[in-house]
Automatic annotation (TrEMBL):
<dbReference type="InterPro" id="IPR036770">
    <property type="entry name" value="Ankyrin_rpt-contain_sf"/>
</dbReference>
<protein>
    <submittedName>
        <fullName>Uncharacterized protein</fullName>
    </submittedName>
</protein>
<dbReference type="Pfam" id="PF12796">
    <property type="entry name" value="Ank_2"/>
</dbReference>
<dbReference type="InterPro" id="IPR002110">
    <property type="entry name" value="Ankyrin_rpt"/>
</dbReference>
<dbReference type="InterPro" id="IPR052050">
    <property type="entry name" value="SecEffector_AnkRepeat"/>
</dbReference>
């Protein structure tokens, strides 16, 4: 027969009233209550982790526990909102927003990040200013969600100077989203900068380069060639040479960048079209420093620039045993230093004419 003591302990209503005066939360809420979260907006990189956490909790405890969850730990409401938006659960969103309107900040950004058009539409009444829509537009552009870009574009007043976003097309071009680049070009007035073509070249987006070359006037900078060489995009380098014919490319930077990253195919292409432009000792130095012995073999075979005395020390410091062995074997041909006789930078093994002339003068003096 239950006693009064048992009756107190087994009363849900009474235990709930008592727990309100105690610190802490029930065990089942602990994973959510201890999850760190900023006071307002959250980094988009955390959205997948939050979604996974809430999904696991709902799988274990069910949605019928949500009212208790919000009572036990109100701050979890923001995590629920993020989960609802990220997974496209309109009903859950409406339930949460009915009592958590102040937590709607940044949610449009979450919808844009996850490509949830339905949620973006549902959030418009709760989005208080154009700045939030502009931030979401930037996110949607960077992720390539054209349907959300089109929707958010319609929510903003047209041709308002306060809503000018000059780098939208740059971001779309950098991430290879051609459909977004096309939409921004034909429907918005900001245009782009030279960063658009530079970054498209850096990431190997030939279709973006073609579109910008035909439809835009901003062009690119010499960084486009250097970035393409850095990342080994031979087709892009070829495209730049053929289409941007008036550019003064910095071939020494392109060659050094390709050598530093081990792109022998890039060096081969540049050597085929520019066998004398921009080749210096720095190319072999950076190749040695980063352990690219195949690049060193290419430069040794095709060039006579060699490397500096620092190459072997850099390779040894970074643990590139194969490079050190190669330099020990071929160092007399490759390592260039200042000759103490003639004062010119020459290979270590060069036969110095100044030494020969000095010896001849000594013989004449003896005679």
């Amino acid at each position: 027969m239950p006693t009064t003591f048992h009756g107190v302990l087994l009363s849900d209503d009474l235990m709930l009233r008592i727990s309100r005066f105690q610190q802490g939360v029930p065990q089942q809420v602990l994973p959510l209550a201890t999850y760190h979260q900023p006071t307002s907006s959250i980094p988009m990189s955390e959205v997948p982790a939050i979604t996974s956490l809430i999904h696991q909790w709902l799988t274990l405890h069910g949605q019928h526990q949500l009212p208790k969850l919000l009572t036990w730990c109100p701050r979890v409401g923001r995590l629920l909102l993020i989960h609802a938006v990220a997974t496209g659960q309109v009903n859950l969103l409406q339930v949460c927003l009915s009592s958590l309107v102040e937590s709607a900040e940044n949610l449009m950004d979450v919808a844009a990040y996850m490509g949830q058009l339905t949620m973006a539409v549902a959030l418009v009444p709760y989005t208080l200013d154009d700045d939030a829509i502009m931030a979401a537009m930037f996110t949607a552009v960077s992720r390539g969600h054209l349907n959300i870009v089109e929707f958010l574009h319609r929510q903003l007043p047209s041709k308002s100077p306060q809503l000018h976003m000059p780098h939208l097309m740059d971001v779309a071009a950098s991430n290879g989203h051609l459909s977004v680049v096309r939409f921004l070009h034909f429907n918005r007035h900001e245009g782009c900068t030279t960063l658009a073509m530079d970054q498209a070249a850096s990431r190997g987006h030939l279709d973006i380069l073609d579109f910008l070359h035909v439809h835009r006037q901003e062009g690119c900078t010499s960084a486009a060639m250097t970035l393409a060489s850095t990342h080994g995009h031979v087709p892009v380098i070829q495209w730049l040479v053929e289409h941007r014919t008036r550019m003064a490319w910095r071939w020494s930077d392109a060659i050094s960048s390709a050598a530093a990253n081990g792109h022998v195919d890039v060096l081969g292409y540049i050597y085929a079209i520019k066998p004398r432009a921009g080749w210096t000792k720095q190319a072999m130095d950076v190749a040695a420093c980063n352990g690219h012995v195949d690049v060193m073999r290419f430069l040794h075979r095709h060039r006579k620039d060699g490397c500096s005395e620092a190459a072997e020390a850099l390779a040894a410091a970074n643990g590139h045993v194969e490079v050190v062995a190669y330099l020990k074997e071929h160092g007399d041909e490759l390592v260039h230093c200042v000759c103490c006789a003639c004062g010119f930078v020459k290979p270590r093994s060069h036969a110095c004419a100044a030494v020969a002339r000095a010896a001849m003068r000594r013989r004449v003096c003896v005679k």
